[in-house]
């Protein structure tokens, strides 16, 4: 008679992954939507079942043991594979039906999703969309761990082992205060801005790296502007800082089209140059069976961005 071993549950593995990613029981519990005591009990049960310590606990820190790190690596693969099994079954039905977990970065979510998702829901009422807004690095961890199915990101970005579908170019525009000398130009170049400092998003936002790449790098210098010391947590904060005359920034055209400068005196001009834009698209695991769904979804976004928005009222500071 075959003896069956007691095996870890997927829930226990997800909890262990969350502890490894967050380095803190409280934050890991929040990420798993459970109490800290429940998460701690789950990890202790897992360790008791395996007979080995996976998490080293002190009063001030939480660290994975070497064995714990190896288990987390395997656990990510297990959770992802099980998620792909569920996706495979779901994919056997209609395109864009059933649950879909979409991760999206904050420099895209509020400006693009409201334009596209109503049409997606009307066309595919059977789709149950779950959204998570976060920075690119954390979204990629969620995708690798099977917590997310597909990501809506800005490129270029290193995405080893993932498939992508780019559907749009999103040009950068220069945003400046009312009365600034930039208002006298129809278009601006990086060289025009070499004496300026740019206010940018904080570390971890891919738009910061894209803006630095467009403007000539972290040091600025003779070719373009330097990055200022101020770092914002959102594009809306940057716009308010510009509106108060504290400096310049770069805004994606997508955000301007969505009205991010509406109600302010901020002026904008297009930034000329070969590399003055970011790309927007989807990324997913190469093993995912949902490729047809993701490409169909990308089609909605591509079609929407190809449709001109209604004319804007005068006073936005935007030039044709």
Summarize the structure in words.
This protein has 10 helices and 11 strands. The chain has 2 domains: 10-86, Winged helix-like DNA-binding domain superfamily/Winged helix DNA-binding domain (Arc Repressor Mutant, subunit A), CATH 1.10.10.10; 93-320, D-Maltodextrin-Binding Protein, domain 2 (3-Layer(aba) Sandwich), CATH 3.40.190. With 320 residues, the protein is of the alpha/beta class. Strands 3, 4, 5, 6, 9, 10 and 11 form a 7-stranded mixed β-sheet that branches. The protein has a two-stranded antiparallel ribbon with strand order 1-2. The N and C termini lie far apart (78 Å). The model has no long low-confidence stretch (mean pLDDT 86). Strand 3 (98-104), helix 5 and strand 4 (127-133) form a beta-alpha-beta unit. The chain has helices at residues 10-22, 25-32, 36-50, 66-91, 109-123, 136-144, 206-215, 235-243, 253-257, 291-305; strands at 55-57, 62-64, 98-104, 127-133, 150-155, 162-176, 197-201, 226-232, 249-252, 267-270, 277-285. The radius of gyration is 23 Å and the shape is globular.
User: What letter string, H or E per element, gives the SSE order?
Assistant: HHHEEHEHEHEEEHEHEHEEH
Q: Using only CA atoms, what is the Rg?
A: 23 Å
**Broad structural category:** alpha/beta
Please report the distance between the alpha carbons of the first and last residues. 78 Å
- The amount of helix comes to 25-40%
